[in-house]
Amino acid sequence: MKPRITLIFVSILCLYNCNTAINNEQCNSNTIKVTATAYNSLAYQTSSNPSITAFGDSLKPGQRYIAVSRDLLDSGLVHNTQVKIQGFDSLYTVKDKMNRRWRKRIDIYMGTDVKKAKQWGKKKVEIEFCVKTKDSIPNENVSP
User: Per the count of CB atoms within 10 A, which of 30, 36, 64, 130 is most buried?
Assistant: First the structure.
């Protein structure tokens, strides 16, 4: 009898978590045309600690990260936002922010491969990302 109760409990827990995940995925899709450049985790391109982002995350070659200009933060392109970049199959994650002088710009992280970053150069691309709606953000002040 105990295994049956455990199975029922696990099933209910799974259903609850599945519904929660679906509700948290509600968002508004945005598409913006930006200038895309590339950067490396090297001191002369970033700072004296090139492996730490402006958000405090650690960079390691091979990760699919981008830095965004600060005006894009106001557009909903905030820390840990997933971004689809025109010309790439994989999603990239916002993990860094750029110097205040840049506008409508992203910087694609390319590890320590300077040659690859230079080959990318500077391009106009469309990016697509999702801004969570107010309905999908849990309100901690509401009592059950």
Answer: 36
pTM: 0.71
User: Please, how many CA atoms are within 13 Å of residue 1, restricted to the half-sphere of its CB?
Assistant: 0
**Residue listed under structure tokens 């491969």:** 113
Please give the helix or strand (H or E) that residue 120 lies within, else none: helix 114-120
Are the C-beta atoms of 92 and 82 separated by less than 8 Å? yes
Return the amino acid letter for 37.
T
33 class by beta-carbon count within 10 Å (0-12 exposed, 13-18 middle, 19+ buried): exposed
Residue 134 has a pLDDT of 65
CATH fourth-level superfamily of 27-132: RlpA-like domain (2.40.40.10)
Q: Is-contact 43 112, C-beta < 8 A?
A: no
First-to-last C-alpha distance (Å) of the chain:
32
The pair of structure tokens assigned to 51 is: 């492996």
Spans of all domains in the chain:
27-132
Which helix (H) or strand (E) element contains residue 97? strand 91-97
